[in-house]
Amino acid sequence: NATILMLARNSDLDEAVEALTSFETQFNHRYHYPVVFLNDEPWTEEFMHGVSSVISGQAIFDTISSEMWGYPDHIDQDAARIQIKEQGDRGIVHAGQESYHHMCRFYSLKFYDHPAIQPYKWYWRIEPGISFTCPINFDPFAYMSREKKRYAYAIALQEVGSTVRSLYRVVSDYKDRMKIAPSRYWDALVDPSWAPLPIRWLLRLAPYRDVYGDEWNLCHFWNNFEIADLDFFREDRYRHMMEHLDKLGGFYYERWGDASVRSFAATLLLKAEEINYFGD
């Protein structure tokens, strides 16, 4: 009960065909998993025909509603657009693109409830323009189900700090307020401060710091290749955390990325043994 998900635009046709051809060659020609294509605009016949011709599984095309792809009611849209423009003027990566902010919010707290995704338990996210350089001779979905894994990543990177200046602090505060005991993966994201207490009280005022002065090292799971148990995202504890972050407005007033948000959620809410690194 699994699907591949590609979020794309009609203009991404060439990059989508390139990615799917690679994916089919290295993996899916053996398993024929369906591919769900989502877009915030109607699909063209050219796009649908182009990608359908290179995949071996069912192609499912759907659009994203304005409720899922757009400003929530609690966001001051005029203030958000001013912030987005200022972020773009400062050269923050993708931050000047309104649609990119919508995408980060959609992937953080909406996509798993989309009607086209709702029937599935497992999903594998791929992006237009990516490539798979070697054969994948096993089924990652079957592996994760058998080994009781719930979230998997293939690459860990450093986040662009200017996009997430307040994110770690608000997540850390949420962890403390909810009395969540994080996994060892959380510890790997945090560099503890060894400064004396008075200095630590000053450090907590800086970006990427928590109330104790400890610092997020900006490491995160790059989720463009993530494989996950969608039921994890649908659990009350994940929804509660995402709703809390959403109300703070950081998807728009800053440019909180879905990869960093997902990394914090996984390391806080899952056991370490439920997270898998596909290093091969």
UniProtKB/TrEMBL annotation:
InterPro entries: Glyco_trans_15 (IPR002685), Nucleotide-diphossugar_trans (IPR029044). One of its GO terms (cellular component) is membrane. One of its GO terms (biological process) is cell wall mannoprotein biosynthetic process. Gene3D superfamilies: Spore Coat Polysaccharide Biosynthesis Protein SpsA, Chain A (3.90.550.10). The active site is at E226 (nucleophile). One of its GO terms (molecular function) is alpha-1,2-mannosyltransferase activity. Keywords: Glycosyltransferase, Transferase. It holds the Pfam family Glyco_transf_15. Belongs to the glycosyltransferase 15 family. This is Nucleotide-diphospho-sugar transferase.
